[in-house]
Structures are given as C-alpha cells and as structure tokens.
Amino acid sequence: MPLSSLEHDRRYGELDQVLRAYAGQPADDTPEEPGVALTAYLRHTWHTRPWALATAETQLREYARNPPGRLRLRLGEFYAIPDVGLPEPEIQQWLTCLADHIRHSIETGEVPPPATAVTHWEWHARFPELAQFLGGWFSQDMPDEFTDHDAATDDYVTGTDRHLVARLAGELAELLALDLDESDYALAVAELGMEVDPPAPYSPSGWLAHLAARISGPRADYGPPRG
Predict the structure, then answer these.
(1) Which residue segment(s) compose the domain that 195 sits in?
(2) How many angstroms separate the CA atoms of 81 and 74, rounded?
(3) How far is 95 from 27, CA to CA, in rounded Å?
(4) Most buried residue, 15, 96, 139, 197, by CB count within 10 Å?
(5) Does any domain span residue 177?
C-alpha cells in the first residue's frame, strides 16, 4: 500500500523539498560546486529552517544507500524520484553529491548570501501567500470571473482569514523593498502565478504598491474567510 503521510514525511519529507527545488532546473551539480537549484535550496533553508538541513542530508544519503527494492516498488511503499534529466544509474551518485554539499555547508558554515530568488521553487518558497493570491485570483480566467483587478483583490481580502491577508501584506512589502528593476518585477509576478497583465496604467511594481495599499485598508465582513 502507498506510504502514509506520516511515514512519507518521516523518511522522505525533506528529501522531497530538495528535489522540488529542481523543478524546471537542471541537475547540474558537480562534486566541486552545487548547481543553481541546490544553491537556491541552501540559501532559502539556511535563512528560514536551518535545522532542516541535517534532515535533508540524512534522507538524501539514506535513499542513495538504500534505494527501494522490488518488494517496496511492487507495494508502492516508496518515494518516487522525479525526473531530473539524469540516467537512472547516475541518480544514486547524484543524491550522494547533494548530501555531500549540504554536509559541507553545515560543517563549514558556508551559506549562500541573501539574493533575489532565482528559481521557480525559490520564488514560491519565499513568497507563498503571494503565490497563492496571484495564482488563484489572477490566472488567465480572471477577466471572466471579475470585473477588474480591484474586484479580484477585494474578493481575496473579504474571503480570506485576516492573518493570511496580513502575511500577504508582509510579502508584498518585502518584495517591494528589494527595489528590483521593472523587468525583474514582471518576472517575479509571472513566476508567482500571475497570468494577466497589470491594469493600465500600472507597471508591475506600481501595481504591487497599489495592491499593498489596498489590502491594508479597512475590510468589510462578508462571511466566513478562507483559512
């Protein structure tokens, strides 16, 4: 039978986080240097959940040493490594390479410095509520569901728990404080799930600033919130 959620997290939870960081990224790590995806994972995890790094190192190494055998494969009691573009015989060596880099980072204290998010995973890990908001309310279907961008924003604010709205306000403030180029703000909102253009006459950063002001204003009670 498939793994329970508890067993999955106990044995593979942080390994899964590492491998999710490779979505859309090559497994280009070498014994000398971690690749872009692992560097993004290290940068974010060091600054948010540093205690998880040792778990990641252990789970990666254990999986590399003991990949699922035929019985576990037949029963479905295993973690399926996503396709990272490597031949199957090279996967175990690659996982060990990742574990080695994480261990080196822990033991030496070498931490990637803070930087703008680079990968799709890193954008979502760093701005989770903004990704929920943009991907859920500003998909390509937004013009069919709402009269305009402000109506979509108001729908989110009035139907979402105020603690999550406050989290969104904080993430917007953090993103704006990075003072990125306009092209980088356009990339950021696209990576975070926005599939429509900002309303005229706003640039991406101007619209984010407008959003920040709008969601921080007074809010009416229109029923039970999302939470």
Answers:
(1) 127-215
(2) 16
(3) 10
(4) 15
(5) yes
Whether 31 and 104 map to the same domain: the answer is yes
Query: Rounded to an integer, what distance in angstroms lies between the CA atom of residue 104 and that of residue 51?
Result: 15
Is 33 contained in some domain?
Answer: yes
191 within domain boundaries: yes
**Per-residue pLDDT tens over the stretch 39-90:** 999 999 999 999 999 999 999 999 999 887 654 555 555 677 888 899 988 9
CA nearest to 53, candidates 111, 94, 3: 111
Written as six digits, the tokens of 19 are 């491998």
CA–chain centroid gap for 163, Å, is 20
Half-sphere exposure of 69 (CA within 13 A, CB side): 3
Q: Are residues 68 and 133 in the same domain?
A: no
Query: 206-214: which pairs have CB atoms within 8 A and are 24 or more residues apart?
Result: 207/149, 208/172, 208/175, 208/176, 209/176, 211/153, 211/172, 212/169, 212/172, 212/173, 212/176, 214/150, 214/153, 214/154, 214/157
pLDDT digits (tens, 9 = 90+) for 166-195: 999 999 999 999 999 999 999 999 999 999
Q: Which of 108, 140, 157 is the last residue of a domain?
A: 108
User: Model's pTM, two decimal places?
Assistant: 0.88
> Do 77 and 136 fall into the same domain?
no
62 and 19 fall within a common domain? yes
**223 to 19, 163, 214, 220: CA distances (angstroms):** 39, 16, 20, 9
Whether residue 104 sits in one domain with residue 12? yes
Domain boundary among 52, 73, 108: 108
Q: What are phi and psi of 173, to 5 degrees?
A: -65, -40
The pLDDT value given to residue 82: 86
